[in-house]
Design brief:
Length: 100
């Protein structure tokens, strides 16, 4: 079991997570995930990203989305994610002290 700290960049997950916030992600083998949870993922095109699980398909692949649809890469562009790409599930949010 591991906890890892990540800094949020961009506005794709606003208003809940904004630029310079931090999140703490929980990681372990066979992490049980559900739609609606926020995860940190290693994406082959976009690098390390923070997104919400929109759907889990019948073959256990994840479809992700950003909370701010206007500022986020679309679910279609992100494609389906396999469990091995999930770095961890977000369990704690540390807001930036400079929120407007």
């Amino acid at each position: 079991m591991k906890l890892k700290l990540f800094r949020v960049s961009g506005d794709s997950m606003s208003p809940q997570f904004v630029e310079n916030d931090y999140v703490l992600a929980f990681s372990r083998r066979n992490l049980r995930l559900k739609p609606g949870q926020v995860v940190v993922v290693s994406h082959p095109l976009y690098g390390t990203i923070i997104k919400r699980i929109a759907q889990i398909t019948n073959d256990h692949k994840l479809r992700l989305r950003g909370d701010n649809q206007q500022q986020s890469t679309s679910t279609e562009a992100l494609g389906e994610i396999i469990q091995e790409q999930v770095i961890g599930r977000v369990v704690w949010h540390i807001p930036s002290t400079f929120r407007s």
